[in-house]
Amino acid sequence: MTGIYFSGTGNSRYAVETFCKEYSKDCRVLSIEDSEVKKAIADADTIVIAYPVQFSTVPKILRDFITDNKRIWKNKKIFAIATMGLFSGDGSGSLGRLLTPYGAKVIGGLHLKMPDSIGDEKALKRPLEKNKELVKNAERKIKESVRLLKAGKPTQEGIGPLYQMAGLFGQRLYFGHKTKEYSSNLKVDSSKCVGCGMCEKLCPMDNITIVDKTAVSGDRCTMCYRCINKCPKQAITLLGKKVVEQSIIEKFI
Q: What does the alpha-carbon distance between residue 93 and residue 179 come to, in Å, rounded to a whole number?
């Protein structure tokens, strides 16, 4: 088994690392940004894929990775892990429907409610202890899911027509257009930015550059929220107007 992931603030990385560690000490875990990830996928029989749900669908960067490398998925057995701040409906199913046309077989799915990563929206914020509790609950779900997978009864969360309808009518029908293309809505407050370059280094899309000691964003944001949650001056926003709380997984484990 090999684990791969795309992660903004670490939730999905932590989830797949925990899953693979519980499954086998020999299980390797890589980011889709790793230069060796395509070879690791090609060499694996079973792959666990973790990602953060965005409006009940797959982030554009992960969709592009899958379609750009469509030949490597043939005959692969896939277990999908979807992490979310609140609700997804069919997070793992969305990934499965993307992979199936390329010859992959989705054997199971798991949904994990995790600390919300949208740092510039107040509505989804939770107290620190509640977020720590969410992570502990996720760890328990992971351990049980691994036990069932080893027993030949993999969990099926997010997979099937009822889950698909929940995802469609719960979010995708109204907000799905937000993830069809990369976003140009990332905003940098030049009065706060000090040009430290952290956001430029963190961005998986090379969408941010430092110009005249100020961060400048382009039109290829995949909405991962890395830069927003790690900017030392809280100078970057996307969906909201100001940073409410910066959340990364290390705060909650």
A: 16
Q: Taking 90 as the threshold, does the pLDDT of residue 173 lie above it?
A: no
The Cα 131–Cα 146 span in angstroms is 23
Residue 56 corresponds to which tokens in the numbers above? Answer: 């009940």
Query: Which of 41, 23, 21 has its CA nearest to residue 31?
Result: 41
Q: Are 63 and 223 in contact (CB under 8 A)?
A: no
- Judge whether 172 and 51 are in contact, CB under 8 Å: no
| Spatial contact of 199 and 236, defined as CB atoms under 8 Å apart | yes
Whether pLDDT at 172 is above 90:
no
Instruction: Give the whole-angstrom CA distance, residue 106 versus residue 149.
Output: 13
| pTM listed for this prediction | 0.95
Closest by Cα among 226, 177, 181 to 199: 226
- Is the torsion defined by CA of 192, 197, 203, 207 positive or negative? positive
How far is Cα 151 from Cα 205, in angstroms, rounded to an integer?
39
